[in-house]
Amino acid sequence: MIAPAQNILSSIGGLPEPANDEVVQAIDVRKNFGRLEVLKGVSLTVRRGEVVVIIGPSGSGKTTFVRCINHLEKIQGGRIFVNGHMIGYREARGRLVEDSGRNIARQRREIGMVFQRFNLFHHKTALGNVIEAPIQVLGMKRNEAVGVGRDLLARVGLASKADAYPAQLSGGQQQRVAIARALAMKPRLMLFDEPTSALDPEMIGEVLEVMRELAREGMTMIVVSHEMGFAREVADRVVMMDDGQILEEGPPAQLFGQPAHKRTQAFLSKIL
Amino acid sequence: MSFDWPFFWHYLFRPSGAYLHGLMLTVVLSVVAQSLGTILGLFAALGRMSRLTPLRLVVRAYIWIMRGTPLLVQIVFIYTGLAAGGIFRFQDISLGFMTIPGNVQAGLLALSLNEAAYMAEIIRAGIASVDHGQTEAAKSLGMTYGQLMRRIVLPQAARFVIPPLGNEFNAMLKNTTLVSVIGVPELLLTTETLTSATFRVFELYSVVALYYLTLTTIWGWVQARIEAKFGQSTAQAEVAPGFGERFFGRAIFGAARSKA
Question: How many angstroms away from the CA of A111 is the closest CA of chain B?
Answer without folding.
Answer: 7
